[in-house]
Amino acid sequence: MKVTRSEHDGIPVLKLDGDFDSFETEVVREGFEAIVAQGKHRVIFDLSGVSFANSTTIAYLITAQKRAGEMGGRLVLARPRDFLRKTLSTLGLDAVFPMVETLDAAATALKSP
What we know:
Blueprint: E1 2-8, E2 11-20, H1 25-37, E3 42-53, H2 55-70, E4 74-78, H3 82-90, E5 99-100, H4 103-111
Parallel strand pairs: 2-3, 3-4, 4-5
Antiparallel strand pairs: 1-2
């Protein structure tokens, strides 16, 4: 798993590339926590490069969303591949995570109240 940090329209973006599984969750957590430590609580997870995700992945995304919410922020999942979008929707998590097709849409979603 490669985790790249950038910004889009002033909002932190964690771009994930590769398999997001039990072994890679810590790398993603560290990236997210580094952003939170800087006082930023609205974060885009760019999932366009995620080729695999398991239940640990989904559990971590829920944890990160809760953590952001505790600080008045939230996460938006940008560009998830069809398999991940379908999995999250089947589990009813599309109500928990806004899922959008572009980074622009993710930034807009995070800027709205």
